[in-house]
């Protein structure tokens, strides 16, 4: 029971991070390997606002999310649009965007460790225990989970029931047909990329409430988010959430029962099973 | 053999001879640099053999390399040294075959993601096994000097070149060029694409593991955290792409300047190496998509010649 709930709490934040990546990959078709660095940047911002300005991390989200949105929109327009224009096929864009975002990822790590130093950082926020179902959990984890569910739910509602959300889903299904019904694919892609970045940075701020981060830890989160997106299926919100919770539980179980140093190996085991048996994602249909 | 091939062969032999004599005329500093360059030449050239034609970006180099160093660390006392690179090559090829069988049936993104975390995952498993058995890092103390390591790497590099040249002329190489241009066409003309890719991916796996086995004595102390440092994979990708993967000699054209630059940066500003790595990636994508090879070919086309 303890493992299940801890895993669920962890999976909730993972789901938010992976949703960000899924928007970027599913709609904008950019495999963003700098995603983890955006997360760390969000965490850094929350840490800095909390320690220097005494600003509650939850309130800080109101600053972090719009900033991340703007930064990611700029990144898409300045750095990625030339690649999209140049690409002859989806494969070529994939290779180019992977290399470009690797470059950004390293550059971000370099810049962040320049500004903040190479050390670890964390802060104590709501570090008091709460009791649930007979065991106690840190309050900050529970708060992070609730926020992740609220934000993820809002995102899902927005995608499902608004005109702009419909546009994004249309581009995700078929970017070549979308212009035929009057959708500006480039604007939609930029919006999805920026939104995805904002969601990821928000996830980073939530993670920083209970995780110790440092400048170079981003790639680990990128890796997990990628595994979740592939497990859940590209562009599939429901699958992403289920996959994130599965990963959270698997990691917690391995860390508790075998060895805390094996969490990535646990993620890889899941990844391996998905690749072997359901490469189209948990709920995806087999491609013909 | 045509006159052109004879000329290329002669040039290669002379260049190889000049490299092999480096310990004779070069200082100790240049021998160290030469060994590093030889290592990256092996890694980048074998990387480009697979990733050049297929456009699959492999980040598994560090995993193969680490497996190689561990082969040496575990058995250098019980087996003759010449056997270790061979065992490492077999182990590396086997690991590559496993990874390839799982991922290369699917699209390229799965492959990149899987190899991205591979080194870290193998490191976690090795660390865990060590914790279980109570073993710690290992000392690799041999009588090998830098000079002998350099020569071994040079020989390995020559082998990789010969392999690349032979693959380029073989049915396998032809099949891979078709796969790289259009995988659907390749399938329809009866090529078993997954098999061809897995076979070829075993080449960099074997080469990187053998290089790791040869270089283990240089590190003296081996532990999972250093043997599987993921940075190595990225350095190799940068060097190969900077040189260009279109030709066999391309990666070397990237290895030499980048090793010198890296050395200068680590000495002047050790904290900025990651920033440099990032900027190099961006430079390749936005300014030099074909690497130095692409520049060279464009220049030749422009100024006459063939």
Structural class by SSE content of chain B: mainly alpha
Class by SSE composition of chain A: mainly alpha
Hey, roughly how much beta strand do the residues of chain A contain?
under 5%
Numbering strands along the chain, what is their spatial order in the largest sheet of chain B? Answer: 1-2
How would you describe the shape of chain A? globular
Helix share, percent of chain B: over 70%
Uncertain regions spanning at least 5 consecutive residues of chain A: none
The percent of residues in helical segments of chain A reads: over 70%
Uncertain residue ranges of chain B: none
Evaluate the radius of gyration of chain B. Answer: 19 Å
The count of strands of chain B amounts to: 2
DSSP helical segment count of chain A: 10
Largest sheet of chain A: 2 strands, antiparallel
Strand order of the largest sheet of chain A: 1-2
**Overall geometric form of chain B:** globular
Mean pLDDT of chain B: 82
Walkthrough of the structure:
The complex is a heterodimer of chains A (288) and B (306). Chain A is mainly alpha-helical and 288 residues long. Chain A contains ten helices and two strands; from the N terminus they run ααααββαααααα. Chain A has a two-stranded antiparallel ribbon. In chain A, strand 1 (129-132) and strand 2 form a beta hairpin. The termini of chain A are far apart. The longest helix of chain B has 27 residues, at 28-54. In chain B, helix 3 crosses helix 13 (250-268), helix 4 packs across helix 10 (193-219) and helix 7 (146-169) crosses helix 8 (171-181). A two-stranded antiparallel ribbon of chain B has the order 1-2. Chain B is 79% helix and 1% strand. The two termini of chain B are 19 Å apart. Chain B is globular, with a radius of gyration of 19 Å. Chain B has helices at residues 3-20, 22-25, 28-54, 61-75, 83-103, 108-133, 146-169, 171-181, 183-188, 193-219, 224-227, 231-243, 250-268, 273-286, 291-302, and strands spanning 138-139, 221-222. Chain B is an all-alpha fold. The interface between A and B is large, with 46 and 38 residues.
């Amino acid at each position: 029971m303890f493992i299940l709930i801890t895993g669920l709490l962890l999976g909730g934040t993972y789901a938010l991070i992976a949703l960000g990546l899924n928007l970027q990959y599913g709609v904008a078709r950019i495999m963003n390997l700098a995603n983890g660095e955006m997360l760390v940047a969000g965490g850094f911002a929350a840490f800095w606002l909390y320690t220097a300005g005494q600003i509650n991390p939850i309130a800080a989200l109101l600053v972090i999310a719009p900033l991340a949105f703007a930064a990611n929109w700029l990144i898409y327009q300045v750095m990625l649009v030339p690649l999209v224009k140049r690409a002859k096929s989806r494969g070529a864009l994939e290779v180019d965007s992977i290399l470009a975002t690797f470059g950004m990822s390293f550059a971000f790590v370099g810049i962040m460790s320049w500004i903040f130093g190479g050390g670890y950082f964390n802060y104590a926020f709501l570090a008091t225990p709460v009791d649930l179902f007979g065991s106690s959990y840190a309050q900050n984890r529970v708060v992070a989970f609730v926020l992740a569910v609220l934000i993820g739910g809002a995102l899902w509602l927005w995608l499902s029931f608004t005109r702009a959300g419909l546009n994004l889903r249309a581009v995700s299904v078929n970017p070549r047909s979308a212009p035929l019904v009057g959708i500006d694919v480039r604007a939609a892609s930029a919006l999805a990329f920026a939104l995805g970045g904002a969601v990821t940075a928000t996830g980073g701020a939530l993670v920083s409430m209970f995780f110790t981060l440092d400048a170079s830890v981003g790639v680990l989160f990128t890796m997990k988010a990628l595994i979740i997106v592939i497990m859940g299926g590209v562009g599939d919100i429901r699958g992403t959430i289920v996959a994130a919770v599965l990963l959270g539980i698997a990691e917690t179980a391995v860390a508790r029962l075998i060895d805390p140093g094996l969490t990535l190996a646990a993620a890889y085991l899941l990844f391996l099973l998905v690749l072997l048996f359901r490469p189209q994602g948990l709920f995806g249909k087999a491609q013909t | 053999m045509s006159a052109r091939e004879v000329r290329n062969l002669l040039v290669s032999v002379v260049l190889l001879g000049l490299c092999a004599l480096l310990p004779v005329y070069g200082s100790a500093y240049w021998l160290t640099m030469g060994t590093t360059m030889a290592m990256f030449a092996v890694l980048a050239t074998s990387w480009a053999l697979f990733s050049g034609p297929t456009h699959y970006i492999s980040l598994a180099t560090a995993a193969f390399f680490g497996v190689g160093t561990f082969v040496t660390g575990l058995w250098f006392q019980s087996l003759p040294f010449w056997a270790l690179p061979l065992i490492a090559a077999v182990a590396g090829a086997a690991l590559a075959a496993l990874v390839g069988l799982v991922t290369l049936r699917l699209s390229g993104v799965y492959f990149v993601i899987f190899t991205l975390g591979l080194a870290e995952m193998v490191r976690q498993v090795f660390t865990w096994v060590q914790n279980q058995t109570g073993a710690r890092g290992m000392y690799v103390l041999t009588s090998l000097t830098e000079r002998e390591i350099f020569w071994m790497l040079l020989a390995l590099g020559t082998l990789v070149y010969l392999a690349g040249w032979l693959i380029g002329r073989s049915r396998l190489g032809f099949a891979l060029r078709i796969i790289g241009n259009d995988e659907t066409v390749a399938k329809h003309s009866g090529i078993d694409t997954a098999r061809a890719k897995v076979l070829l991916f075993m080449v960099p796996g074997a080469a990187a593991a053998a290089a790791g086995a040869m270089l283990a004595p240089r590190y003296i102390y081996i532990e999972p955290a250093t043997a599987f440092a993921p940075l190595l994979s990225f350095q190799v990708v940068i060097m190969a792409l900077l040189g260009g993967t279109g030709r066999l000699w391309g990666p070397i054209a990237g290895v030499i300047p980048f090793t010198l630059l890296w050395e200068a940066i680590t000495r002047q500003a050790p904290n900025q190496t990651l920033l440099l790595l990032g900027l190099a990636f961006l430079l390749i994508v936005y300014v030099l998509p074909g690497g130095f090879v692409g520049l060279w070919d464009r220049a030749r086309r422009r100024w006459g010649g063939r």
